Amino acid sequence: MIGSLPLLRGLAGFSRDWLRSDIPAGLSIAAVGLPSAIAYPAIAGLPPETGIYASIVAPIAYAIFGPSRLLIVGPDAATMTVLAAAMGAIIAAEPTAANVDRVAIASALALGVGLFCIAAKLLRLGVLASFLSRPILVGFFAGVSLSILVGQIGRFTGVKIESEGLIPPVLEILGKSASIHWLSLVFGLLMFALLWAVRAFPVKIPGPVLVVVISVVLSAIFDFSGRGIAVVGDIPSGLPTLSLPALYAMPLDKIVLGSAAIFLVSFGAGIVAARSFGSRTGEEVDANQELIGLGASNIAPGLFGSFPISVSDSRTAINLSTGGVSQAAGLVSAATLIAALVFLQTALRILPIPALAAILAAAAISLIDVHELKKIWRISRMEFVFALIAMWGAISFGVLNGVIVAVAATLVYLLRKTMFPRDGLLGYIEGRHGFFDLARYPEARPVEGAAVFAIQGNVLFYNADYVRIRLMQVVKELAAGTKCLVLDASAITHIDSTGAAALDTVAGMLAKRDIIFAIADLSEESRGILDRAGVIKAIGAHNLFNGREEALRTLIGKSARP
């Protein structure tokens, strides 16, 4: 450890005995990761070798800087979809950007994501990982998965699809049905069925690995390329080289915006995945420290001609299931992919594109978490609605704008939860200690000669009017002979100037009726706001109390129990 950098923490205490577990785990990670490494770049229109490069350099960077022993980083379908949208916006908006290599744009965005991670770490913004709530992410990824599925139409059918969105590509392929290469479609669907068969039945070989092996063998035997089935084609056999993308030739404002969108989605989803795996292993996940690991893991692909990455669910799951115990498993995986890049280049060249489409389609469907959607529906109808809003945003406005919709939905959800804080009049129940909500407990009785009103939430500019109206309604309905209204502020952590003005209005209304306005258990921060706003002077500092019981004893001269 140097300062707060988690250098080699994933290899801390390394023992040679760990290699007995980490080497098989690393080989398994590479076997599962190779098919997705080749397939995922197609989502963003990038050559397949970029996925292999990312799967090599990102785990090495994470092994050096990442804090976790078990998390494995790599290409991710959802991140690739946001990347594709960001790249599309850059190329479409700037005519000069069309002349820039797509790989260079992807590399620039990876560098941008890495820098956002580092900046967020310096500002201690790891809390951003919780900004996109689980329902919002589930809905957003469901929308992303549908976008990925539609994007595979051209690869399955061999027809070039010009339109974008969800419905237009489907209508376009129907109009071009005469141009469908049926052999490609049948083969792709067979590989897709094989993937689902492997999931349904206990097969030791991972489905994507089986599809790649079978596809390559059949392609070699039956000359798929000669029969009109598109294949991957030439893949550079050399190792990735260090290079800096030509940032001067790109629209930097759109690079920054695109990087921010990718950062928000990839980091948010990555930390959700990290915490999910951490709950199984007992490994504590520090979002601020993970920012360093993910930052380095994105900067490395950016410097080696690749694209942004995130925490990989599938690779991490394989690491756990095969007994990996340290980041040595990720290093073994990287070394294995280097060997594949050098020695299997000929085999990968004849890999059929429809097989990659099948892998992407299966990965997309796995992003639709039906079980979680059902769980959200059962727990909260409102949260389910916001999940649907996030899904609708990704489908209707495109993935990049869908990020904005998801963020906006999160803000609306947060505001909705806090705009109408729970409140109520409190009273006593004979023989029981404490105060009880009169509306929830029919057996509760109000305090004789006083009213105790609780607000369970902050009083800020966006809900101050609601709080003021509720308090004024309570004041109007106070029973004759009421001497005081005690505001229970124990659940109020913050009051702003607008909230102070609302309470000042209530205090004035009570003063006109000769009813004392008292506040119990007011926080120091809120007291300072009310003091500077003149509210405490209006109600009298002597009417601030440490608790409800103290207020009632002082103001009505007895314990006030019924």
From TrEMBL:
Membrane topology of this protein: Multi-pass membrane protein
Keywords: Membrane, Transmembrane, Transmembrane helix
Chain segments annotated as transmembrane: 52-72, 79-97, 103-123, 135-158, 178-198, 210-235, 255-274, 324-344, 350-370, 382-415
InterPro entries attached to this UniProt entry: SLC26A/SulP_dom, SLC26A/SulP_fam, STAS_dom, STAS_dom_sf
Domain STAS: 440-555
Pfam families: STAS, Sulfate_transp
Organism: Rhizobium gallicum bv. gallicum R602sp
Subcellular localization, as worded in the UniProt entry: Membrane
Primary location recorded for the protein, binned into one broad class: membrane
A single Gene Ontology CC term: membrane
Record's protein name: Sulfate transporter family protein
Source domain of life: Bacteria
A GO BP annotation: transmembrane transport
CDD domains in alphabetical order: STAS_SulP_like_sulfate_transporter
